[in-house]
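Bug #77: duplicate submission created two jobs. Keeping one. Sequence:
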Amino acid sequence: MPMSVTYTNFGGQLVHENRGGTESFYTSDPLGSIVDVRNSSGTQTFSASYWPYGEIRTSTGTNPSQFDFDGALGYYRENANRAYVRARFLRKELARWMTVDPLWPNQLAFCYSLNRPLDVTDASGMGAVLVVACGVACGACVACTAAWCGHCGLDPECWVACLRDFLEHAPPWQKFVCGAACAGCLACLIAFLISLWLPVCLKLCGLICSVVRSNFPAWLSCFNNCMFNCFGRPFLPPPSNDKMPPWLPDPCGPGTPGPGIPKAAAVASSR
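Kept job's structure:
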């Protein structure tokens, strides 16, 4: 009989598992990589550090699960160099995805996390997220809100009066910092919602056009129109894995670590 495993997450990140009665508690770094695992008695059973694109740099003990690099976000290790990230597979030693981004051309075709693995993740496999930047922006916005309007609770009139008081009496530097933080947090939220909505558009338009169109040219025309109405831009056929269109000679940009490039160079290029 397969062993049952129950996972616990907090804020969308893995923090604990119970594997057939054996408990493990996970600690992750700010990016989401598992750096420490302890058992129910508090004894460390696994620790690790990572190269920027996910290969294990050093480790001690045995990881009880398949979650290591960005594992708290759900990156599932298939083997030492490959991880499954919901929509596709990541080749860590190549610093690239194995297949085209489902959101291409809204996202780079094969590039992992905009070539910024030290502060960007892609837990959906479809769109990079500036984890650290978004976390700082939203944290600062919440702090500003709590400092000025934390007493308002759910009272809308209090919030309106509090906002007016902030605009009239807050120092200029505080207005700038709080305004920039909340604007950045809102941008992160909008980007996240868009990343959720676009796959819905893709599936919905594909289903509709498959029903009403019988040949590929007619289907593609229907799909383009549907995507334009759904998302505000037409669909473009994605490139194949081995041949890029002439207007995208290098989908990941210059300096991308690839086969034969030392990990030290990858570290340097990520800073």
